[in-house]
User: Fold Uronate isomerase from Bifidobacterium avesanii.
Amino acid sequence: MTTKYDLNPDRLLPPDPVERDIARDLYAAVKDLPIISPHGHVPVEWFHDKDYHFSDPTSLFITPDHYVTRVMHSQGVALKDLGVNQKDFTPEQARNAFLIWGKNWGAYAGTPMRYWFEDSLQNVFDIHEKFGPDTAGHIYDELKDLLKQPEFTTRELVKKFNIGFISTTDDTLDDLHLHDETNADPDFPARLAPAFRPDVYLEPLTAGWAEMVGKLGDVAGVDTSTYDGFTEALRRRRLYFKEHGAVLSDHSHADVRTDRLSDAEVNKLYAEALAGTISADDATRLRRHFFSDQVRMAQEDGLVMTVHPHVHRSYDPSNLAEYGKDTGGDVPAKAEFTVDLKPLLNKYGNNPDFHFVAFTMDETVYARELAPLAGFYPSLYIGAPWWFIDAPEPILRYYAEVVPNAGFTKLSGFIDDTRALCSIPARHDTNRRLTARYVAGLVADHRLTLEEGRQIVVDSVVAQPTKVFKL
Amino acid sequence: MTTKYDLNPDRLLPPDPVERDIARDLYAAVKDLPIISPHGHVPVEWFHDKDYHFSDPTSLFITPDHYVTRVMHSQGVALKDLGVNQKDFTPEQARNAFLIWGKNWGAYAGTPMRYWFEDSLQNVFDIHEKFGPDTAGHIYDELKDLLKQPEFTTRELVKKFNIGFISTTDDTLDDLHLHDETNADPDFPARLAPAFRPDVYLEPLTAGWAEMVGKLGDVAGVDTSTYDGFTEALRRRRLYFKEHGAVLSDHSHADVRTDRLSDAEVNKLYAEALAGTISADDATRLRRHFFSDQVRMAQEDGLVMTVHPHVHRSYDPSNLAEYGKDTGGDVPAKAEFTVDLKPLLNKYGNNPDFHFVAFTMDETVYARELAPLAGFYPSLYIGAPWWFIDAPEPILRYYAEVVPNAGFTKLSGFIDDTRALCSIPARHDTNRRLTARYVAGLVADHRLTLEEGRQIVVDSVVAQPTKVFKL
Amino acid sequence: MTTKYDLNPDRLLPPDPVERDIARDLYAAVKDLPIISPHGHVPVEWFHDKDYHFSDPTSLFITPDHYVTRVMHSQGVALKDLGVNQKDFTPEQARNAFLIWGKNWGAYAGTPMRYWFEDSLQNVFDIHEKFGPDTAGHIYDELKDLLKQPEFTTRELVKKFNIGFISTTDDTLDDLHLHDETNADPDFPARLAPAFRPDVYLEPLTAGWAEMVGKLGDVAGVDTSTYDGFTEALRRRRLYFKEHGAVLSDHSHADVRTDRLSDAEVNKLYAEALAGTISADDATRLRRHFFSDQVRMAQEDGLVMTVHPHVHRSYDPSNLAEYGKDTGGDVPAKAEFTVDLKPLLNKYGNNPDFHFVAFTMDETVYARELAPLAGFYPSLYIGAPWWFIDAPEPILRYYAEVVPNAGFTKLSGFIDDTRALCSIPARHDTNRRLTARYVAGLVADHRLTLEEGRQIVVDSVVAQPTKVFKL
Assistant:
């Protein structure tokens, strides 16, 4: 017999009674509002399929979630035992991975992954047993049974989660018919958008780049053997995405520089890139030029730009070789925005129709760089804490670092950035609780009235992302 | 009919009842102490004129205050609509600017600008209507009437604000007769000091530098066609300022390096600078040499040095072209003190009569650089949070970052750094409340007795700035 | 007559009653657990001598403790008046140094040095008079008397402090017989370990390096005139230390790079280093190569590696000349781990038997670098806040910065790093209180149950250091 474990309704609200009462009031105003998710990584197929069921709890909660797997890796668990990059992962192995998770549950204490999973377990699956080494097997079996039930298809979950808008992240050449069909289906409960993510096309050293660029030309109906054709092809793909519902283009490079090359130089380097003879330094210079083209195009087509630069991708080469990209081996790099964004902001930052949302994983730039810049330039918005810093402590630090200079109107609103579908409501709820907590502090400080505080938390959930992402 | 809106007497004190009670006690000990303002930008004319009235609320609260205008700029408001750099700004336009401010009031939620203005409105003008889109017009009219009243001359305000000492920031060639006359006037209620700010003379690429240096020579009575003459002229101007009440020289360059040049080199570069042929790199090297001369002179004349380096001045060139300097287009740069100050500290840092106060806008240096250095060198003091970081959250972070290593005796005390006269009491009061809040935390932690805490907050307002700035 | 001054039993616990009650519970679970001190600087002689008495309070509390002396130096006190590097320091001078300390006690408000001394005074010496300018003389006399009593020998203190394990830091050539004899003595109450600290041997520009390397060869029984011999000698010394109880090697260089040189190059540079002709750049390259050898050896002999890089050693040359090293003139430098550790982590970071503990004094790397890296690599552990940041505020920041990504299982546990014996229990107690405080926050947030919180604080004091340092 297990003890019933219930999440406390006041979780993440401030413990001090004065602030907690205010925070409860503020949180009550937003807890049931629909979810707006302008950037994420849930595969479109999960939404398109009218009857999509997850095969088992491990492939839902562990294998695809590098947040979860990297903690176990740090405890000495091999990723292959968690199913990462395994073609033949048996049901026994899947169940065993869940047991390993339970055994390592202590390593998650204090992390958001633990918090999100406990929340999902109770609020999505109504399982009130405490997860841990002794219960992991039992919970696995219970979850596995539930996942077969009709109320646990992706679509039913989207309904249950009250998702109003959700964006996927898609291949530049995708014809987006799955998005179109899903949106055309009156039964699909949310607005579904694709996102334009041209990173690999802007990085000439990507393996197979010339071939990819050739296909880009085929799909766009332009000869991409020249730089002009390449640019035109990308311009058309942006428009194609926009016509099919995209609101933003998403970018992640080593920096955000937009240095332009001369016509002669860009043509020369483009030819070298196609020929595979371009140097690493020139590839970087070409990428910065390409990125500046994206910024220019955004002035014309109006797609919002989101950037999340400064990452050491695949930091561990043995991990990359064995398991591939995006398996937890990325690590934050030092960020720099003020110097690198200067040409971009000087040229386009005063255009209020251009929206540029900067995310970071290096908190030192919030107060020193992003808040002062966003507190001056109409175009610049500060992205919510992201990826390595989407936990309660850094979220509270974020507000305390950006609000004094940039206020609330230059913030992006929450972004879940996840492929872990069942964690989406927990993540948004976490952010709503913490926004309520920070704003409750301002009310308790008598810097805002309760009414003003209420307006701010409500706006942060609906009006603000609607404005920033032009929904 | 409008609802009466009253600031809470506990505002900015800790919400937790235990800490709040302590903080109330500490704050009570300092709330009515006179204001010491060792650095600011109020024009001396406002003090000199026995009957100076502000023409209208916009020219008092909006146009000259880049803190206020940059937030509206970030909302897409053109600075010209706020009167910035406008020669013919009509009364209608001035009133309209105030309405724009009201309309954008939501963008100020959580910022200190909002807090200061609400405080000024109630405590300076006794207006208890809540400012916002609906009341901006009415409040404008009320303020405009009040500004004509005899109790709202600058001098009456200085009395009302209980300002004991206030420093302006002045042109190096100023004859300071306005300061002398004001101080000689028994009716002027405070001690008024000029401040020596030679930045433009130390930066050889300043437009019109050679001409300025010529005038410097004329005023100082020295031939400045040689480096030696230039140095002597600056030495004399420092003494002139000191004789006329200055307590400090103020400096803001891209860095705080003091690398010396050889005699031959400095003479050569000085000649090039006068001829307008100096390179940017050599101008930087010359400026560092000039700055080291200022440091040397401070050993002799005893003027305190305040530095606030590491700013991207006029980051936005279109803003500079249309509106000029100091209109909100400055942005913080990364700071570095430990490496750059080494020669200065090695040579002069152990001289307890030399006071060097380092301000920053990059909070990352407080714990890592300034606190360890000031916790060793008698000469070095850590400036209060300044400019982009003079808000409640960063002020509390500042204390928590510097006190563990440097204690309270190596801090500068509060600096308002403003030309917004009516915000001065609100700014000092903000700092007193937050100092009480931080110290109340130490008392609540049982790290200090209540009596010790009381002594610390009182000292931080009076004894500490009196000592640091040699008042 | 003096008033009795008693430390509050709740000191450093959260003032909010909700959190305080939880924190009291957690703290109660750890307050009486034995002290594990895996790194420190107490001289082994103090432990070896069965009847070691401190000669006077100044030589116990002031002279050898650069934490204490640097604050007085920042107030303009000369270190020689505190006994630093003084051969003939008379009893009168020693007493006077204590009076100077009392006079400057206000400068310590808010610092951990003040907190530790007040704690030691009450809990080690049962003196309940408040230290300060008026009582310093009286307290000095009382302490001096007590130090002669039989219950204040070092060994009695070790017993009283309930120290279970303590490590010294020792010369690489030390034969460690004092450690052996102390451990063999059934009367010695703790386990005493030496630590291998080869820094000076890895820095070829150390004064007298060639001679030192020659002696290293003599002691190790290897000809160190070649690089291979040098490496073998260090390998043997590591083993010697391990055989005599060492659990770790300790390293502090300007960076943590491990770039390898070619065989030809390393032999050439080694010869130049011995000849004293090596350039500064080459000495750095050689040191990085040497350091990589230490890392390799750790794979074989299993010694834990602790690193605390990024310090400007002896920042003030006049202080170095007059008083020598380690007298408070060190200053933190900017830290960088992610780029510099990449080769090391890529090669060895996935070996769970290799333990690499990274300490820093630059808090900006906790959230951005160390937590993400330790949250992936099994080998990497995050050292506790250290040296300039071992105060309440930074300790709480540390937890809030590292736990969200790395949890609690990748933290080193507390390290006192001190030669100030009497401050050891106060330092460990400080950390236990603050760990309880941080974890109480997680419990109050309903992110952990009380029971889970209790387990975490207990583990952090015993199980965690036992695991990390392989005790």
